[in-house]
């Protein structure tokens, strides 16, 4: 069964880490990617513009009730949680912060796990908190595949380490090896 | 649409969730069946964990026989994150683009739907006051959650947030000193009674209740995002029927009327701030 989507959570140091991943995809790579990067509530869409320079995929801010499509990278907007619905559309909401964060990685990962079940890959990158650890566990419990950036290659080790500590991470990879691995296991739909 | 028993994506937990939402609706009259599924599921999962239950079915049993549990679940499904002059640019646009047109009416009916704890209602009341419109305005502020309506009626908020609210107020184009509008007492501030006198706080459920009033302006921000597309459309229709011709609709920053059945009956006043005007014809 091919993987239908990839969710990525990143925090401190995430800009650089996301760039490395997104610029490392092969030309035929088109699995949808949904990203929650912790941002200040007032930030503009710099992240979207920045990442768009490094890929032939289309990077965009996630819109309310948007249908998830191949060839796209969706970024959670600042100050909104991003959720995946079971009909593979995106929802936004402004409920309380989770793990002191909005958007929260756990919110994205837990809802994506419900929607995609064993056809989902979850990746935790650099960060200085423990958001995403519960989400990684949920993805694994639903049969998905889980990856953490190796803490010694992360600008901030705490977040990937917290994910690893749950015991639900399938693979720990160096940052540069993550896109190589994804190219291998995500076959594009012809 | 009838569900096929053999449908492969029909998991047990989804059956249980459907039945739980049906039970809540039939027993207590609150309809969450067309809310964003991902949102509802997440909120109810955390309730299950809290009660150390194993499934939605167990939660269903509990809340059918114990109203206390239902009230807790209800509170958990009601999102009450708000602030004064939230998204200051929205208020700034209201001031420059909508207020001048509202000034042409001899009296105004304004409906804040999903007003939560009232911060945004008082914010708009301040704006009306500064524009000389408050005295001829009748403001209806509604929510389905009676707890938050009580907070809204009191108009008492923690002092700890006043600094942030003051900045929002200034960014929104406030004309006075924000401190003119409240009195501080220890850890709380209470908003001036003169802001309350034309506000009616009332219980109203957008999902199950009907058309509200012949409104000149409806403000409903960050409520539709919790609904699925079909419920969003239904509520937008309800707003449309509640507005006078030429009336205004203000939504949350990520909500809009594009692709909805009312899209063509409205003119966009400000696309970014999600302010729309119902056409005259």
CATH topology of chain A: Rossmann fold
Order of helices and strands of chain B: HHHHHEHEHEHEEHEEHEEE
The CATH topology name of the largest domain in chain B reads Rossmann fold
CATH superfamily annotation of chain A: Methylesterase CheB, C-terminal domain
Number of domains of chain B: 2
Q: How are the strands ordered across the major sheet of chain A?
A: 3-4-2-1-7-8-9
Structural class of chain A: alpha/beta
The CATH top-level class label of chain A: Alpha Beta
Biggest sheet architecture of chain A: 7 strands, parallel
Give the class of chain B from helix and strand content and strand pairing.
Answer: alpha/beta
Give the count of helical stretches of chain B: 10
Structural summary, described in words:
The complex is a heterodimer of chains A (190) and B (281). By secondary structure, chain A is an alpha/beta fold. Chain A has a single domain (5-185), classed as Methylesterase CheB, C-terminal domain (Rossmann fold), CATH 3.40.50.180. Chain A has helices at residues 14-22, 46-52, 105-116, 133-141, 158-165, 177-185; strands at 5-10, 33-37, 58-61, 72-75, 81-84, 90-93, 120-124, 145-149, 171-173. Chain A has a 7-stranded parallel β-sheet, sandwiched between helices. Chain A has a two-stranded antiparallel sheet with strand order 5-6. In chain A, helix 3 (105-116) runs parallel beside helix 4 and helix 4 runs parallel beside helix 5. The model of chain A has no long low-confidence stretch (mean pLDDT 95). By secondary structure, chain B is of the alpha/beta class. Chain B has 2 domains: 12-77, Chemotaxis Receptor Methyltransferase Cher, domain 1 (Orthogonal Bundle), CATH 1.10.155; 88-278, Vaccinia Virus protein VP39 (Rossmann fold, 3-Layer(aba) Sandwich). Chain B is 41% helix and 19% strand. Chain B has helices at 12-28, 37-50, 56-65, 67-77, 88-102, 119-130, 146-154, 162-171, 193-196, 229-242; strands spanning 108-113, 137-143, 156-158, 182-185, 188-191, 199-203, 215-220, 243-251, 266-270, 275-278. Chain B is globular, with a radius of gyration of 20 Å. The relative contact order of chain B is 0.13. At the A-B interface, strand 6 and helix 3 of A face helix 2 of B.
